[in-house]
Amino acid sequence: MIQVLFVCLGNICRSPMAEAVFRHQVKEAGLDAVIAIDSAGTGDWHIGHPPHQGTRDILDQYQIKHEGLKARQVRSDDFIQYTYIIAMDASNVTNLASFAPDFVEGEKRATIHKLLDFAPDRSIKDVPDPYYTGNFQEVYEMVEESCERLLAFIIEKEKL
Ligand code: 4NP
After folding, report:
1. How confident is the model over 57-113, as pLDDT tens digits?
2. Where in this chain does the record put each Phosphotyrosine protein phosphatase I domain (predicted)?
3. With 70 as the cut, is the pLDDT of residue 156 above it?
4. Over the Cα atoms of the chain, what is R_g?
5. Fewer CB in 10 Å around end: N or C, the chain?
6. In what order do the strands lie in the sheet containing 2-8?
7. Which numbered atom of ligand 1 lies nearest the CA of 9?
8. Domain 2-157 belongs to what topology?
9. Where are the domains of the chain?
């Protein structure tokens, strides 16, 4: 099983949006039996909470299911369980380091990427945080495009 974990700060705006969109795309591609998906936040303020209203509204608008999503915090064993950890911005990558204990050589499985690494045509490299900007539409467009390309990358890399 290939495991993909999306990570942001609060796990209520960007990473649950990416989780829902990617799950939808993976299902459409008929790969839901081989690719497992989750999301988490580096912060602990929203543990157990559903996605932000803005994320739920935009997902509803595009008829992407999000029922049952609940925020959780990153755990150290995520670095062993997950194949790919996809962060929304550079500060998430920095914060992730504090959750990665000193793994024995070869034990850590996950490779960490930023979502916009998969959208090289875009001028920005970090997904803006709609918790502060209020712009869920622009984030949806970035997430949708980058997740499509992430899926193509995984299909090629994992020979699916
Ligand atoms: P997210 O946005 O990282 O995209 O989920 C945020 C959500 C909540 C907070 C910060 C960012 N917060 O400070 O509570």
Report:
1. 999 999 999 999 999 999 999 999 999 999 999 999 999 989 986 665 566 689 999
2. 2-153
3. yes
4. 15
5. N
6. 35-41, 2-8, 84-87, 111-114
7. 3
8. Rossmann fold (3.40.50)
9. 2-157
Ligand 1 near 14 CB (within 6 A)? yes
**78: Cβ below 6 Å to ligand 1?**
no
Q: Which atom of ligand 1 is nearest to the CA of 46?
A: 14
Query: Among residues 13, 14, 23, 89, which one is catalytic?
Result: 14
* Portion of the chain with pLDDT greater than 70, in percent: 95
Name the token pair of 160.
């699916």
The token pair that represents 84 in the structure block? 């790919």
pLDDT of 59: 98
User: Does the C-beta of 131 come closer than 6 Å to ligand 1?
Assistant: yes
The pTM of the whole model exceeds 0.90: yes
